[in-house]
Amino acid sequence: MINFLPLLPLMVLTGVILTLMMAIAFMRNLALSCGVSVIGLALTLGSIIWVNLNLEPAYVTPLLKVDDFGLLFSGIMVISALFISLLAYSYHKQRGEQQDEFFLLLLLATLGAVTLCLSVHFASFVLGLELLGISIYALISYPNQGQFSLESGLKYLILSGVSSAFILFGAGLLYAVSGTLSFADFAASGIGSTDSSKLFMLIGSAMMLAGIGFKLSLVPFHMWTPDVYEGAPAPVAGFLATISKGAVFAALMRFFLAADGYQYESIMTGLYWIAGLSMILGNILALLQSSIKRLLAYSSIAQFGYLMVAFIAVSELAGKHLAIEGAVFFLIAYFITTIGAFGVVTIMSDKAEDHDLDNLDAYEGLFWQRPLLAAFMSIMLLSLAGIPLTAGFIGKFYIVASGVESQLWYLLAVVVIGSGIGLFYYLRVIYAMTKKGLASSEVSIPVTSSWTMAAVTLLLLILGVYPAPVIEWVSNMALQLI
Amino acid sequence: MSAALTIPMEHGLLLAAILFSIGLLGVMVRRNIIFILMSLEIMLNACAMVFIIAGAHWGQPDGQIMFMLILSVAAAEVAVGLGLLLQVFRRFDSLDIDKANRMRG
Hints:
The structure holds 2 protein chains of 2 kinds. By secondary structure, chain A is mainly α. Chain A has helices at 8-26, 30-54, 68-93, 101-118, 122-140, 149-178, 183-188, 195-215, 224-231, 234-259, 265-287, 292-313, 320-348, 366-369, 371-385, 391-405, 409-434, 447-465, 468-481, and strands at 58-60, 64-66. Chain A has 19 helices and 2 strands.
């Protein structure tokens, strides 16, 4: 008899989705839909904490493993989805009728992300990945009047479909040589003992890396990112940059740790180059952007480059613990910061009808017109740049520390150069906001959005000033993994 | 060992790889959205075939289960794709992907 109790978070989230679906069928009301999803996400978070405190880590069927790692990542996903739903409320309130399904799709995508975080088997990995992906296609092209949303949705659908096919084909080849679909059994299956199986292993893992590189928008698989972020509604762009990438990263990390992907020289060389190129190209291309959404897209490419440094550092035995801890902490900081930054774009675009206000011109003089909003944005950008007193600083400190521990000197040099370039374009936005512009206007921030932004900013500063409790928590989780 | 296993696994994988390449080529060179979606289907079917072949090689049912999973996933993906396609046709009066590509980069 399998004990399904550890799957409580997934069951609660599924229950909320069904409830919301019924609620929409009977009554269309945006406040109700948003309320149901927010309460549902809070309940899910509660169940995650309950499972973490009361139950031992356990496999639930060979497909899912509910352990500290999975629960920590699931918790991050659910909290982020909570913030994004709150920010999306006033955004959608301005945009006509029939906006309720947005929350339904958001919850479905979150369910996919949580499944990815818990998966230890290719079947559940594919299921989670596609649940996440298919909901996102619909989310991107959700706005009816959207200028670019339809084409960016279509673009994402085609490219994401291709990348899923790459991941599946790669997984199939790995299955062909190893005879197992479970992550943990790969290491024991003795892949690569003969020449032909070595070749299949190499092709298979290269194809999987290409597909995952696409999902994480790492160079050279990053082309779609700026276009899709520009066309997607601002809250969805925030979702794409955080939850969609973070969940895939969690699954990738679990796969590498369980299957010991670090022992293969060629894969690590590939990752090394991917990380370096992402940091360089992401930062340089961000310099050229005049749209905040595109700028954030390129900056997210660079940020994931930094994250990959810690990911690679896990390969060295000496720095393993520190690197896992660093990667997870960096990801938490990145999540909070990115949601905050896209949150400001969301609030700015509340009144715009058919497109988001993401041109840099729209932000000129923001400090004089809407000082609170400009202050939020500045804090987020400073955190992305890694300025002390913000969570981003601690995150970047971790990246550098884990790189030093594992002696990745070339990558560290690129991190330093990239951060220097990064500082320039983040400060450029802040500079634009301080320009003397029009006098103060009477636009106020909607109540839900302002409280959410305040909470996000507070979290960011707490993590930056007093990160000890979170670090301890993450560190314990990392100890369990090795 | 059943009779089906007399075909070496490599041959089956080669066939799947050829199918996959045809699909990938189709996605890259076709301009009509319907054909792009069809090529995507071919790619996903090639993946499903790899799982079938590998499952047969190891004598496990896992490969066929993955096949069914991929089949349903591909169906869901195409359902959303066709929905978007209808919208594109309504707005641009064409199914040409280049007409719907107005963003730079």
